[in-house]
Amino acid sequence: METPGLVVYGEAAPFSTALRSLVNNPLYSDVRFVVGQERQEVFAHRCLLACRCNFFQRLLSSEPGPGVPSPVVLSTVPAEAFLAVLEFLYTNSAKLQRHSVLEVLTAAVEYGLEELRELCLEFVGKALDVELVCEALQVAVTFGLEQLQERCVAFIEAHSQETLRTRGFLELSAPALLPLLRSDKLCVDEAELVLAARSWARVGAAVLERPVAEVAAPVVGELRLALLAPAELSALEEQNRREPLIPVEQIVEAWKCHALRRGDAARGTPCRRRRGTLPREHHRFLDLPFKGPVP
User: Fold this and answer.
1) Torsion angle, CA of 179/182/183/184, rounded to 10 degrees?
2) Most confident range, picked from 52-66, 146-160, 251-265
3) How far is CA 293 from CA 59, 93, 167, 222, 275, in A?
4) What does DSSP assign to residue 159?
5) H helix or E strand, kind and range, residue 44
């Protein structure tokens, strides 16, 4: 009876190095991509991409015709991110960079590359800082990456004031901003959060060419106006007349909480203090102390 064969393995490093030399190499290439807004030409090999990734298997399933085949245009993925994806497909490894890892993560999700996605998520988790976190939160919300979203929200809760001043915060979509405004653990006072929401809405209004109030409508209901002192609420009401941001009905509800001066009637999210809420005289009537862990 024939003895079963034995699988033997050579050194992995030379194999990986050899394959890496084929990334974006026109030698023996049989498919060209034009990628990103910069329309950079990238060379690849159909059989390798098809056997490593179902997305490319479907994309490249048709046989090329005679002559020089037309390039495959992928305009939404930046060239640097696409080359990182190719490197991973060829070598099962990739060099990730802080400035482009979210673009690689986006491509990994869109192309169904689960292992690369997990590697990117691990990298982002370690690289999170005030400048990166809002961009990461936006990607997490867009693609339903719940663990990354939770990690980003927790980071922003601990670094609220610094994060609100970043460009990334101003560029968040409304669905990405909502989990922040719903959080009890933000280390920021409500007056500052109202100002940040107005700045965010102004930027969105300029980009979308829509009224500030219309842009703000999906999120301003999460602002807890009853936490503001009467003088602050009056000033907000006056500013709101000049530049509408918050529905009048929401301001009226905040005034009701002041008028009733009773915690029972004021119970609910609009009156619940956040971790960073500064104390005001009327808060003693709300009777809703923050019960989360003290940092």
Assistant:
1) 180
2) 146-160
3) 51, 40, 30, 22, 9
4) T
5) strand 40-44
Q: How far apart are CA 157 and CA 155, in angstroms?
A: 5
State the Cα torsion 148-153-155-160 to the nearest 10°: 150
Closest alpha carbon to 44 in 63, 62, 28, 65: 28
Of 55-69, 160-174, 217-231, where does mean pLDDT reach its minimum?
55-69
**Closest alpha carbon to 148 in 176, 185, 167:** 176
Q: Please, which pLDDT band fits residue 85 given cuts at 50, 70 and 90?
A: very high
| Sheet bearing 40-44, strands edge to edge | 40-44, 31-35, 72-74
Residue whose token pair is 């960079």: 97
d(CA 219, CA 284): 27
Phi-psi region of 92 (alpha: psi -120 to 50; beta: other; left: phi over 0): left
Dist CA 215 CA 121 (whole Å): 30
Q: Is the pLDDT reported for residue 126 higher than 60?
A: yes
Per residue in 143-179, pLDDT tens? Answer: 999 999 999 999 999 999 999 999 999 999 999 999 9
| DSSP result, 117-147 | HHHHHHHHHHH--TTTHHHHHHHHHHHT-HH
H/E stretch holding 104: helix 101-110
Residue 275 pLDDT level (bands cut at 50, 70, 90): very high
Phi-psi region of 2 (alpha: psi -120 to 50; beta: other; left: phi over 0): beta
